[in-house]
């Protein structure tokens, strides 16, 4: 019997992985739309608190405002990225001599008898153009799919109005109805808390980092601040990557190590203060995930869905833990994925 159960689990996991890989082009916009849906509802809650002649704004109006606001924000950020990358490609020629000079300095220090390579000799400038073109193409495709994501989010907003009636019409008994309601409520609370807190701390980290970039005078300060905001959603490696990239540019842009050190030390200190002190206090115990599981899920989802998978790895894992904790057959999975083994079941 145990062998049959193991085989059934392996077949189920295999089918799910096949669906995730084969259906990537269809599932990624839907999951991104779910994130936008959560953000729209969180923003809608804030808009609903705004008094108008002693009354609150209508829910339909604030939902439309929220969706429009997030859609315009995504469009503006995408346009900023495209303009910045185009500017960086155009200005790349002025960085090439500086990169050659830095390479020559390193060789003069560690290999005084060696002949330092050059960017032209290594043909890295050609690779830069190739990578930049590929990145711009990817951003163009993302912009095309953005409309689809917003359309899905709109359908989710329409569907949520009738979701309560559908729940009542399912005809579940009291125990099943309570379990389903509890599971959905717990997932909803976890997602809203995670996305709300993460968005706030990401904005705070980006603004403080921009102050450091502005003080140092590094090129494309706004772009690097946005990159920190975006990469802050990626556990562990995101903040490290977003800190090193502007630091490397400062190493090329300036003739001394001081700007590089100021950026690396300053932004790292901000990341530690916000990510390790402020964020856990705001997040509380809502994310009961093992740190090892966070890293493994990050690697797994990055392989399956690329950068989008890295951004969604934590929310997806949280939902899996909550759902698995509700059923005796999968409760052990939730315990293994959790941080302390304490998972709640209705």
TrEMBL record:
Cell compartment(s), UniProt: Membrane
Pfam families in UniProt: AI-2E_transport
Membrane spanning residue stretches: 6-39, 60-78, 134-158, 195-216, 222-245, 257-278, 298-325
Record's GO cellular component terms: membrane
Membrane topology, from the record: Multi-pass membrane protein
A Gene Ontology BP annotation from the UniProt entry: transmembrane transport
Keyword flag Kinase: no
Keyword Transmembrane helix: yes
Keywords: Membrane, Transmembrane, Transmembrane helix
Protein name: AI-2E family transporter
Family annotation (PANTHER family): AI-2 TRANSPORT PROTEIN TQSA, TRANSMEMBRANE PROTEIN
Sequence similarity: Belongs to the autoinducer-2 exporter (AI-2E) (TC 2.A.86) family.
